[in-house]
Amino acid sequence: MVDPKQSPRHLTERPLKRKSRSGSMNIGEFLFNVCNYGLLAFFGLVTILPFWHVFVVSITSYQSYLNNKFIMFPVDISFSSYGVLLSDPKIHRSFLITVFIVMASTLLHLAITAITAYPLSRSYLKGRNAMMLFIIITMLFSGGLIPHYLLIKYLGLLNNILVYIIPGAFSGFSAILMLNFFKQIPDSLEEAARIDGAGHLYILVNIFIPLSMPIISTLALFYGVGKWNDWFTAVIFVDKASLYPIQNILREFLILGNMDTIGKGMFESDSYKLIINIKMAIIMVATLPIILVYPFMQKHFVKGVLLGSIKQ
């Protein structure tokens, strides 16, 4: 007979063995974790240091900057450069224009992409392969800059704020990602809605889009960041400074500002002293808002890319 006070051997050894596995770490795992976290910390530091340096220079006095060009900690703190930016109506206007462009173009892009991807994701759509081939061709070939300029001119979009929004509102890359995501939604949901009398627009808006927030957030982040950083469109198609986005104002300070001070004793002029601080301050103003968006979109970002790029 087995003593009831004495537990069987197989019941006592397994928990101890499992506990030892989870509670202990061998030399190889420890070294891997040290190297892994060390590399991640190093790359994170390399990424943060330039941004921190820009911020420190933007609030450091000009004389302290001349004494030590690479400043890691602010000296003689002064927020006069930010005061100049906040009091400049040109900066206010360009910032508001950029926010409007990003929001309007991103919403239009998502709407067009969803309307395109939904029918192409349905297997019963006739001619879907030919349509997909047409979309892929547009991803591989383009007409070039001169035909594109002539098209914008004939559409009447030169010196028009719509030139930032309408051209490029559709992207084949975004359509393919959303299409593959829509394919993973069970067909039974669409069939049940069709039995209840729902139309395609109702199914898209009330079923597919709420279930596709990961890919929608990912595409919104991709496209929104691209529009926020876009400066080339204004250089080619816009002559009015009143329609410049924030990136073109930054370009003027970084490039044209240096050219204006050449020949005046650049390192001694008051304009150079002002430009140094304003350059760094406007870089912060142009970069910080889009950086603050990432933490709110990060939870959907990886999931949206993986699920939208792999067809199961």
From TrEMBL:
Question: Which residues span the membrane?
Answer: 30-52, 95-118, 130-149, 161-182, 203-225, 274-294
Q: Tell me the keywords, alphabetical order.
A: Cell membrane, Membrane, Transmembrane, Transmembrane helix, Transport
Keyword Metal-binding in the entry? The reply is: no
Q: Which SUPFAM superfamilies match?
A: MetI-like (SSF161098)
Compartments annotated for it: namely: Cell membrane
How would you describe this protein's topology in the membrane? Multi-pass membrane protein
Q: Which family does it belong to?
A: Belongs to the binding-protein-dependent transport system permease family.
Kindly provide the name given to this protein in its UniProt entry: Carbohydrate ABC transporter permease
Species this chain originates from:
Paenibacillus mendelii
